[in-house]
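Homework help board

Subject: predicted structure for assignment chain

Our instructor gave us this sequence and asked us to write out the predicted structure in token form, then describe one feature. I got the tokens but I'm not sure how to describe them. Can anyone check?
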Amino acid sequence: MTGMDISTSGSSRIVVVTGAGTGIGRATARAFAAEGAHVVAVGRRVGPLAETAAGYERITPLPADITADGEPERIVRAVTEAHGRLDVLVNNAAVVHSGALGSLSPELISAQLGTNLVAPVLLAQAALPSLEASGGVIVNVSTSVGQRAWPGSSVYAATKTALELLTRSWAVELAPRGIRVVAVAPGAIDTPIGEHQGLTPERRAAVREWQLAHTPLGRIGRPEEVAWAITRLAEPAASFVTGVVLPVDGGAVVA
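My token output:
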């Protein structure tokens, strides 16, 4: 695999972050790199990945479609061949398509299931031997709305709720193998997700107004604040924490 030539010291952790081209994924890749980890930034688009890595010599872009056949195995193989290990897998990549029941096409349903749920399962499965060898960590990125109703985006919310159940189940299943599994559930965060949904500026403004009204801290969160939670849960000092889903949502879930 070209571009995967960063030398790795025995004390440096190797981290894979999916959906690393923008938003929470970009902030997370940079946060790990700033702490001294070597980060493999995975995403579909070359340009945004290059922007994520700009100025961060410890970030290596790896363009990949995590939903394509054989890609989870290829990603893990590329990482282990280049670095010899894998310590943290951050399942962050996700897509969201709005649509009420009665308007959902099979294509929109499949896209969300494939990226948000199936790909994290297959990536975690491919990474298991490496994570067991390193006593590693899986961090799943969910959403605080997964614990509440989300009319109009029910399939997206359902995939994230399922990811939380996987988090708890894997935490128990993989504990004897020395692997921790945790999740972070962001609330309203300043990311391009609205643009990626194809929402009009007016619709995005309406969504933000609703989010602000339902967030007790009264503001939109920053990707760096979610990245902080991800890096803290993944660090060795959190070695007795597993199976937890940590909301990072300004109090939205409890309001």
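Reply (TA_rk): Your tokens look well-formed. For the description, you could write something like this. Confidence is low (pLDDT under 50) at residues 1-10. That's the kind of observation they're looking for.
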